[in-house]
Structure formats: structure tokens, C-alpha cells
Design goal:
Mean pLDDT of chain B: 94
Order of helices and strands of chain B: HHHHHHHHHH
Oligomer: heterodimer
Low-confidence stretches of chain A: none
Number of domains of chain A: 2
Largest sheet of chain A: 6 strands, mixed
CATH architecture of the largest domain in chain A: 3-Layer(aba) Sandwich
Low-confidence stretches of chain B: none
Distance between the termini of chain B: 23 Å
Largest sheet of chain B: none
Radius of gyration of chain A: 23 Å
Helix content of chain B: over 70%
Shape of chain A: globular
Structural class of chain B: mainly alpha
Mean pLDDT of chain A: 88
Strand order of the largest sheet of chain A: 5-6-7-3-8-9
Number of strands of chain B: 0
Shape of chain B: globular
Structural class of chain A: alpha/beta
Chain lengths: 306, 244
């Protein structure tokens, strides 16, 4: 059996603009793939094409081996979709919505159980429009899961969700993949994408810029580094001379030293800070984060680093 | 079509309709108010040949109730469902469009049944003695439901949510005045009366009035207009409807 989701050289135009420009990737059963990119990158358009809401201008998409437009009827009973803007009746209560969606499917999850699972029992009397953004997202995800989908498309599931809600969403996504579903999740939030993804597909302006496991993507980054934060004025030139490595201030009060984080180097760094009476706020050794990779890739596409 | 899904969808459509206060006011409150007020306070003219206002108003407000449920309530609710992406989301479930439309129809029929019972009780309490052929009246209601729901869905499927809200309410008001429901058609100026008779509101109130009178009358013109709208409006709605 091939991948659960296949996107091949997909091109989708909105009028004169090319929203998706030759995107290819796959999602295997039991895998969480994160489509990561800034707003307007073409993520939602790609997902909408996979749902059968749009036709490809060229290239092809297959979900469970089916054409999402021509074989829509056969696909929907095996699909779970969480649209970006909710798409839930404003006047409906959480349990009513879950019971309704459960009735669409052959072998649904028990709505009561799901209500507890997403932690909405306490707001069971509220209607959709009275729920907070995070509560709406949790209900919306539950509605996508109630039919035990083999493939789930989750469009920006974490936007507007607080820390506690994110943990719930992550555990639901993990369970879904654990049960063998192929999960395609879009986000513009790097941390979130990195946390849930088995694989990340970085997309910008309609094109795939990089693809791989989060660890692989990080290792393609700018190499070894030490990052630290310090309060007070750090003379980067003096520090660079002391350490024998380039030092840059990446943001206000946060610095990057381009060298391997050996115990000796770290000791030199802290000693230098002590000498200059600077308080260390944060110290991190290792490879560049996915964010660096992301910014670099997106920057390159712009014709130069940002 | 899954009966489980149809039953669940119909239940929710009905539940949400009854939960919307403005919808209950429009579909039940206003017709009951008009019926009671204008029966007791004789300020409006009645058509020639009618003695008691309630004999004219009872079929009229039944027609008004059908128009408000099938056109205004369905149109506005569906318009916002489209604007909020509800219809699009349902499109990615196994529900299916035929089941969704069937559930909406069943829900409207259930609300209309409530309206007919409530309005008939109030009218009888006010001295209405309906005669004629109730079955013929039900046929008129069924045709009108098709016509008005078609118009409501045409607006919902082609206009923005807020525009549908405004348009449905605007058309409701115009057809209320030109529909022979509370204000007799024969008191309108000639040209306006001719115009009014083209629309399904006047056709419905005339068909209903005739069906519930003794002896029964079946004005051919009104029935022909009603049948025409009942066929054309849903067909155009199905043709022009955009789901997103």
C-alpha cells in the first residue's frame, strides 16, 4: 500500500496568483507531517485541494488512493477535517455538535467520552459563539476525530490556543497517529510544529523549501553554536577576541557564539562574563534551531538573508 | 441517505431554529400579534364580502407564518452557515447535500406544524370558524414552502451573510404589505395589486383563504402563480447555490 496522502507537483492558482507552485510530499499512515510556513505560503490551499474543495491546476493529489474531487463520496467517511475558521454552528453546544457529527459516521467515538477528553465538560452549557478561542479549537478538533478518521487534515489547530489547550491538542494528535491515522497539520508556529511533527515540510510562497525530520532539518542549519543571554552591555568584539570565535547579538540581549560548545569554551565564556560583572540570563549549546533554518530558507527565497 | 444522520441533522436544525429568539419572534410572535391585534382593534380594512376581520386575518397570518419560516428563517440561518464555513465543513463529512437539504425541509415542516396549531387555536379563540377543505390548504402550504424556501436558499447561496439578512427581512416586509395577508389586495391601487399578484405571498394567502372558506374556492390564477414559484424558485436556488 502506498502513502495515505500523496501530493505530486501540485499547482493551484487563485486567478492570476499562483498559490501553490509545484508542491510534492507524502504522508504515511501513522505519521504526523507538519506543513510549516508563514501566512500566505499556500498551506491552506494545499489542504483544501486535498479535501476536494479545489481542483489542482496541474499535478495531482491522492488521499487513500482516491481523487478527492471525483471520489469525494467514498473519501469523506474516512476523513477528519479541522478547518481553519471552525465552521461550526454558532448556536450549538459542544455535546450537541459531537453527537451530530457522530451520527454521520458508522463507528464513531463516544461523544461523552470525547467531551471529557478535550476538557469541555465544564462549558457544556455554552454555545460555540460563547466559547473562548482555545475551547473552540478543542471542540473543532474533537469534531474532526469523532469518526475515527484514517486521514486527518488539521489546519492551524493551535492558533489562539493557550498552553494547557496545546497540551491537550498535542496528545490528541499523538493518539490519532498512534491509532494508525495519517495526520497532516499546518502551522505557522515553529515551536508547535517541531513538537508534534514526525516530519516537517517547510513551504513558502507556494514552494517546498525543505523537508525532513526536525532533527535532520536542524543539522542542516548553520552549525555549532553557543547561545546566551546577558543583562548589561556585552562588548561583542572583546568577547570574540577572548573566545577566538565570532559573536553576534541576535536580538536585544541575546548573543550567538559561532563555535563548538566544549566545556573549555563555556568556561571561558562564563569567566569572561564574571570578569565584566555581567549576569548570565540563559545559556544554550547545540545546533541552530528550526527557526534559524526556517528564517534562513525563507530569507534565501527573498534573495538574501533577512 | 443514512436515517441516523437525517434524524440527527433534522433534530439539530430544529433545535437551533427554536433556540434563536429572533427566529421565534418572527415565525410565531409576529403572526400571533397581528392576528390578535387586528382582530380586536378594527383599524385595517377587510376585503369586500368579509364580515369579521378574523375570517380574513386567520388565513392571512397562516400565509405570513409560512413565508417567515420557509424564506426568512431558512434564508438567514443558511446564509450565516455558509458565511461561517459550516456548509463547507459539512461538505467534508459523510452527511451529503441531499440529507442536509432533506433535514432543512423536515425542520421547516415541523416549525410550520407548530405555527399552524398555535395560530389556529388563537384564531378559533378569536371567533374564527374555518370551513372548506384543510387538505387543499395543506397543498397550498406545501407549494408555498417550496417557493419560499427556494427564495431563501437562493439568497443564502448567492449573497453574503449580512446581505441575506437584510434582503430576507426587506422582502418579508414588502411581501407582508403586498401579500394580502393583513392588508386586502383589493384595497391596493390597481397597478400595485397587479404587481402583488405576481408574487407567491399574495398567491398563497389567496389560495389559503379560498381553501378554508365555505364554500371552497380555488382561484386558478393564484394557484398557477404558486405552482410556478414552487417549481422555479428551488430550481434556480439549486442551480445558483454556492456552498462557500
Amino acid at each position: 500500500m502506498g502513502p495515505a496522502v500523496t501530493v505530486e507537483d501540485l499547482v493551484v492558482r487563485h486567478g492570476d496568483t499562483v498559490a501553490v507552485d509545484g508542491v510534492s510530499f507524502t504522508v504515511e499512515a501513522g505519521e504526523v507531517v507538519v506543513l510549516l510556513g508563514p501566512n500566505g505560503a499556500g498551506k491552506t490551499t494545499t489542504v483544501e485541494t486535498l479535501q476536494g474543495l479545489r481542483r489542482p491546476d496541474s499535478g495531482s493529489v491522492r488521499v487513500l488512493g482516491l481523487d478527492p474531487v471525483a471520489e469525494h463520496g467514498a473519501l469523506v467517511s474516512r476523513l477528519g477535517v479541522m478547518p481553519q475558521r471552525g465552521g461550526v454552528y454558532p448556536g450549538i453546544r459542544p455535546l450537541e455538535a459531537l453527537v451530530l457529527f457522530a451520527a454521520y459516521f458508522e463507528d464513531p467515538v463516544d461523544p461523552e467520552e470525547l467531551l471529557d477528553r478535550v476538557g469541555l465538560r465544564s462549558v457544556a452549557r455554552s454555545t460555540w459563539r460563547q466559547l473562548s478561542g482555545g475551547e473552540q479549537q478543542r471542540l473543532s478538533l474533537a469534531l474532526a476525530l469523532v469518526g475515527r478518521p484514517e486521514v486527518a487534515f488539521l489546519d492551524e489547530p493551535t492558533s489562539g490556543v493557550d498552553v494547557g489547550g496545546r497540551a491537550v491538542l498535542r496528545s490528541l494528535v499523538a493518539d490519532l497517529a498512534g491509532a494508525g491515522a495519517a495526520v497532516l497539520l499546518t502551522t505557522h508556529e515553529l515551536d508547535e510544529g517541531e513538537r508534534v511533527a514526525d516530519r516537517v515540510v517547510i513551504i513558502d510562497r507556494g514552494r517546498v523549501r525543505a523537508e525532513g525530520r526536525p532533527s535532520e532539518l536542524r543539522s542542516t542549519g548553520a552549525g555549532a553554536e553557543i547561545r546566551f543571554a546577558a543583562s548589561g552591555d556585552v562588548d561583542t568584539a572583546a568577547l570574540a577576541a577572548a573566545l577566538g570565535a565570532a559573536v553576534t547579538e541576535v536580538s536585544d540581549g541575546e548573543y550567538r557564539v559561532a563555535t563548538e560548545a566544549t566545556p573549555a569554551t563555556v568556561a571561558d565564556l562564563t569567566a569572561w562574563l564574571a570578569e565584566h560583572d555581567l549576569v548570565l540570563g540563559d545559556l544554550r549549546a547545540g545546533r541552530s534551531s528550526l527557526e534559524d533554518v526556517f528564517l534562513r530558507l525563507v530569507g534565501e527565497a527573498d534573495g538574501g538573508p533577512r | 441517505m443514512s436515517t441516523t444522520a437525517l434524524a440527527a441533522q433534522t433534530r439539530v436544525e430544529l433545535l437551533l431554529t427554536l433556540r434563536r429568539g429572533e427566529s421565534v419572534l418572527l415565525t410565531l410572535g409576529i403572526p400571533v400579534l397581528f392576528l390578535a391585534f387586528f382582530s380586536l382593534v378594527e383599524v385595517l380594512p377587510v376585503p369586500e364580502g368579509v364580515d369579521e376581520p378574523v375570517d380574513f386575518l386567520a388565513p392571512g397570518v397562516l400565509a405570513l407564518a409560512v413565508m417567515s419560516s420557509a424564506m426568512v428563517s431558512v434564508g438567514i440561518a443558511t446564509g450565516f452557515e455558509r458565511a461561517y464555513g459550516v456548509l463547507e465543513r459539512l461538505g467534508s463529512t459523510p452527511l451529503g447535500r441531499p440529507t442536509l437539504v432533506a433535514a432543512k425541509i423536515l425542520s421547516v415542516l415541523a416549525v410550520e406544524a407548530l405555527q399552524v396549531v398555535a395560530l389556529t387555536l388563537v384564531a378559533v379563540a378569536l371567533g374564527w370558524r374555518p370551513g372548506g377543505n384543510p387538505l387543499l390548504a395543506l397543498v397550498a402550504v406545501a407549494l408555498a414552502t417550496s417557493a419560499f424556501a427556494g427564495l431563501g436558499l437562493l439568497m443564502a447561496g448567492t449573497l453574503r451573510g449580512e446581505v441575506t439578512l437584510a434582503a430576507a427581512n426587506g422582502i418579508y416586509l414588502v411581501l407582508l404589505l403586498l401579500g394580502g395577508m393583513v392588508f386586502p389586495l383589493d384595497r391596493l391601487p390597481g397597478a400595485l395589486e397587479a404587481l402583488a399578484r405576481i408574487f407567491p405571498a399574495a398567491a398563497l394567502s389567496e389560495a389559503l383563504g379560498g381553501a378554508l372558506a365555505s364554500p371552497v374556492q380555488a382561484p386558478a390564477g393564484a394557484w398557477a402563480v404558486l405552482l410556478g414559484w414552487a417549481l422555479v424558485a428551488p430550481a434556480v436556488a439549486a442551480w445558483r447555490f454556492r456552498w462557500r
